Amino acid sequence: MAERKSIRVYREPAGGWGALKATGKALAEQGIPVFGARTLLRMNQPEGFDCPGCAWPDPKHTSSFEFCENGAKAVAWEATSARCTPEFFANHTVTELSAWEDFDLEMVGRLTHPMMYDAASDRYVSISWDNAFALIAAHLNALDSPNQADFYTSGRASNEAAFLYQLFAREYGSGNFPDCSNMCHEATSVGLPESIGVGKGTVLLEDFDHADAIFIFGQNPGTNSPRMMTSLHDAARRGARIISFNPFRERALERFQAPQNPIEMVTLTWTAISNPLYQVRVGGDVAALKGIMKAIVEADDDAIANNQPRKIDVDFIQAHTLGFEALVDDLRKTGWDAIEHNSGLRRSDLTAVANVYMEAKNVILVYGMGVTQHHRGTENVQQMANLALMRGNIGRPGAGVCPVRGHSNVQGNRTVGITEKPAQEWLDRIEQTFGFKPSPQHGRDVVATLEAMLSGDCKVFIALGGNFATAIPDWPRLQKAMRNLALTVHIATKLNRSHLVHAKEALILPCLGRTEVDIQETGPQSITVEDSMSMVHASAGINDPASEHLMSEPAIVAGIARATLGDKTTVPWEALVADYDSIRDAIEKVFPQFEAYNARIRVPGGFHLRSTARERIWATATGKANFAVFEGLDEDPWHGEDDGLWLTTMRSHDQYNTTLYSLSDRYRGVFGQRDVVFVNAQEIAKRNLHPGDLVDLVSLSNDGIERVVRNLKVIEYQLPDGCCGAYYPEANPLVPLYAYDKRSRTPSYKSVPVRIAKSARNIVSGAWAPQS
Ligand SMILES: Nc1nc2c(c(=O)[nH]1)N[C@H]1C(S)=C(S)[C@@H](COP(=O)(O)OP(=O)(O)OC[C@H]3O[C@@H](n4cnc5c(=O)[nH]c(N)nc54)[C@H](O)[C@@H]3O)O[C@H]1N2
Ligand SMILES: Nc1nc2c(c(=O)[nH]1)N[C@H]1C(S)=C(S)[C@@H](COP(=O)(O)OP(=O)(O)OC[C@H]3O[C@@H](n4cnc5c(=O)[nH]c(N)nc54)[C@H](O)[C@@H]3O)O[C@H]1N2
Ligand SMILES: [Mo]
């Protein structure tokens, strides 16, 4: 079933028949019949479950069925008929499994039993739930301080599970909540509140119907939020101008054939999406954004000189903002040569973008990981807000900033208390509601947890989902540290690398997935999630659980809590889990924005959590929206040699973070392989390399530690000079732990200075054809 290794240009538009075919293949591979794929038809329906894939909203979660290739893959991955059983573990030692590819580990299937690591046989053996909880309790209660335990969350957990999880950890006494958001949109959560008073996007799905222009920075919707393509497709057909900034000419940003559109499907036509797509240099977004803003200031100067209408929204700026003069001063000081050099784009191009921006009444600014995962990611995000504020593009229909979140409920996890920096206000309400006093101290985020693993300050690591050991930067060093912990616990649906990078003692606790029926004492339960646009809605699974031994995430958390806290706890754990409505009632007490929570999720489509910025109420320290000056143009610090390249790491079309659906990346024309590095023709020639050569990538770092990934195949690809790209997570060993944004502490996954060296094993192999 593995696809033959090849590189061949994919000429089709994104979407279309290629997507339908890929969906059928994904279902077949997981043993799910395509006809009668009942599961898929209940996805994102009022009575069904929320897609476990991305966080893009659905048209009101009402009745339309939106086809989505990668949503189907996410569902098929969870609804697979394959099982990872105690017999499987009996047949393989952990040492043996450690030599398996990540792809093969997950392909074993859904976990069926709680498992405990047995050092004597080097195997995972089954354990009862009660004994598993008792083991965790024994470890947690033996620590010198609760501060030695870290509680990781991956953003697929429901609001109910996430709320109970943080409640437990806080009652236990820890404030350490590293979470996937720390590696993802933390720059948004830190940057936007300073600029506009909310750490989330300000648009709703319907705003896409009213935008005259949509700019997309560093986000790949055709792969990572494919349902967004419906909005972009419709906007493009309506005549809205879409402009993208991406080092890669991502196919879906260029042209898309809507599987929903019978005419395009039958006539094999497609719709042009971005017009144009600018191939910004890796780490060049600040320069591009400052260039666009500078061009607006220059046009505004001309307008004043010629007595024409102003190009900026003077009334809005005066009434609603602070800091505009400082921004303008800085833009005037910033030279075009430097802007062109850093962005890799021409002044004329950036001026053309500025013209589109100034001519459009309503503009939406969309962005993703290409913007946040940089050394100065927070400030990068703030430039997005600056541009929006210059013409009042926040707080009116068809306009706003639109950070596209990652995991399907990562935003909700944050809203219900997964944060290492809790607000005292809601800690007080936890005390009023539950009668214990949570520690006001700020705890550890991902980077701090990793540092604590290295220093020995962290002893117990519990993960509610995810694949921490692989998603993090610099893992060769950090995985070693993880092995020295006292206990690792993974609540998971499938076997992954993190379970094999175990501590002295280790547990894998298998949980229900979102597609499955969750029955508790009072009957079938539903959970709730919040999407990228702050819409909260219910989700209820329809499939039978993968095994009768699975527990739900809320029940597992409650089980750990009861075992650890015993009779000392002031939280009614059993009652909360018996009826998830009561968890939601508790969430509402702690977070009043969830007012009438249970009533409002029973309305099809759910409800919107208030966004003050949408109403032009600025919940910032100054009470106004703030322009933020970015000094200089360098998003990331360079180390060492001149012949280096900026490496960016991104997702293929066939993966969900560390989960690989296949080894292919259809739209980029790479099949059956992931050990590749994308480089342009000049950079290849400059280094006396040839397409197909095997090379090593070596990080240019300043801490004396060698970081290298060996034997990647060079693929000639149309990219800006000075850049290269490789896949996440294979390239993660190259990202130094110290390389993170000092404001949001997000690792700089999208800008690693590297050098390319010929591999010792340099054999030219495989079929190869240049990319057009
Ligand atoms: N199918 C699927 N869906 C997903 C995920 C998945 O892995 N698979 N992951 C989920 C998660 S957790 C997240 S956070 C999102 C991620 O979704 P995205 O934000 O789309 O993430 P990436 O694919 O990492 O990178 C996005 C784009 O940034 C571009 N890029 C790289 N460096 C730069 C740069 O310096 N500047 C600019 N302008 N662009 C750059 C890359 O070429 C790529 O097109 O998707 C979510 N949805
Ligand atoms: N180089 C590089 N590194 C990156 C990134 C990058 O762009 N480049 N992106 C970063 C980003 S944006 C993110 S969000 C992180 C992602 O980091 P994580 O969220 O930790 O990783 P995932 O790969 O999403 O986790 C997959 C695992 O989650 C478990 N799982 C799946 N569904 C469920 C469920 O319903 N319940 C439970 N309990 N477990 C479940 C399965 O066991 C599966 O193996 O990675 C970051 N790392
Ligand atoms: Mo993410």
Structural class: alpha/beta
- Helix count equals 31
Distance between the termini: 28 Å
Low-confidence sequence ranges: 763-772
Work out the number of β strands.
33
Could you tell me the CATH topology label of the largest domain: Rossmann fold
CATH class identity of the largest domain: Alpha Beta
Counting structural domains, the number is 4
- Using only CA atoms, what is the Rg? 25 Å
Question: Largest sheet at a glance?
Answer: 6 strands, mixed
Strand order of the largest sheet: 6-5-18-17-16-7
Mean pLDDT: 94
> Beta-strand level of the residues, as a percent range?
15-25%
The small-molecule ligands in this entry are: ligand MGD, molybdenum atom
Envelope shape? globular
Q: What is the share of helical residues?
A: 25-40%
**What CATH architecture of the largest domain do you see?**
3-Layer(aba) Sandwich
Family: Belongs to the prokaryotic molybdopterin-containing oxidoreductase family.
Domain Molybdopterin dinucleotide-binding: 645-753
Keywords: 4Fe-4S, Iron, Iron-sulfur, Metal-binding, Molybdenum, Oxidoreductase
GO molecular function, one term: 4 iron, 4 sulfur cluster binding
Explained architecture:
The structure is a single chain. The protein is an alpha/beta fold and 772 residues long. Helix content is 35%, strand content 16%. The protein contains 31 helices and 33 strands. The strands form 10 sheets. It has a 6-stranded mixed sheet with strand order 6-5-18-17-16-7. The longest helix is centred in the middle third of the chain and has 21 residues, at 285-305. Mean pLDDT is 94; it is low at 763-772. One ligand MGD binds next to α24 and β17. One of its GO terms (biological process) is cellular respiration.
